[in-house]
Amino acid sequence: MSMNALAKHGFVRIAAATTKAVIANPEANREEIERVVGVLASHGVEQITFSELSLSGYTCGNLFHDDTLLKACKQELLTLVRNTSDCNVMFAVGMPLAVGSDLYNVAVVIARGKILGIVPKSYLPNYREFIELQFFRPAKIAGSLGVDTVSIDEHQDIPFGNDLLFALHPGSHAIFSYAICEDSWIPVSPARIAALAGATVLCNLSASNITIGKGDFRKMMMKSDSGICMAVAVYCSAGFGENTTNVSWDGQCLIAERGEIIAENERFSQESDWIIRDVDTGSLISDRRQQNTFADNAYDYAAKMRKISADIIFTEKRSLEYVEREKFFRYVSPTPFVPEEDGLVGERCYEAFQIQSSALASRISSLPQKSPQVCIGVSGGLDSTLALIVAAYAMDRLGISRKNIIGITMPGPGTNYGCDL
Prior knowledge:
It is a single chain. It is built from 12 helices and 17 strands. The model is unreliable at 316-323 (pLDDT under 50). It is of the alpha/beta class. Helix 2 (26-42) packs parallel to helix 3 (67-83) and helix 10 (344-365) packs across helix 11 (382-398). The chain has 2 domains: 3-326, Carbon-nitrogen hydrolase (Nitrilase/N-carbamoyl-D-aminoacid amidohydrolase); 344-420, 3-Layer(aba) Sandwich (Rossmann fold). Helices cover 33% and strands 24% of the residues.
């Protein structure tokens, strides 16, 4: 199936990429980000999420107060924008950005040689091992000061704020929101507010350090966000190269859709790593239209957001290998209604059986007779056999003898009567 055909059916090819970090060396980090953008663009990827502060490194500490580092980050950002102008892909990188007298931890969204917008981190952790308020200011400070655009050299009036949504192109169902790490670890997250405002892909640039069991908790968060919001949730954490004086990083990348993890990488890689998936944003819109309470909730809580178009257009001549673009980056189960995980099939079948027998018991219990009878036709096939077993267990639930089940054998190839005919 060609990429154009995928786009017509509501699919979009996205990636989450964690790069090998060099702390306080924006040039080295920019070169690696640039390399990864080129590789992923050659695979037909249309959007990439990198990790938090990927241009500088997360563990710079007091160097975030150094003008030399901040100027270098800004210079390398501009170089990155210029050098990726030929890549037909939208991507977000993290960096520290000084705006006036304040410093923000931001996600910079780039496409086709243009800075589309800059999203500052909303919630800065300042507990246990985290000391982000020592360096950065939260997004609400910029909002209170009326800062909604910034300029970086020739890039003037860049939208700035946590109220930005990014569409791949006008009319696209692929509408992206960007949040940074802690923004997803709170009860009312910016991602869920963005989903109510129309975002279908919720991206999180993270530098969350790793502790025992934390990887599973991140999966749970992404599954929850994607399920409740009827969206795609993308998570990308910092990895190898970050300072490990008292904490460590695993470089976890996750993509979830409709409450299920559909892509994850092998953590603790010592090199840059990424995952690619074709996600079905068209069907997400359909789901939201059918579930009327989503629109009702959006009416009550959705914030007003600014929408920006990246004008990404997939052309048949752009990829290095046409065959690679023909590949479908998504697993399609041959048995979509039957779980493939070991042990889960039996669990689900037993739950279905419990639902059936409990429902039948409820119906039987409403009959006026003290000892009601159940009449069932038994053909010898699987359906009637299951119905007979369900009836038996329903009687057991109610404490009624199974002798009250009247089984009528029906002529058919699976019964003696049927074979005699």
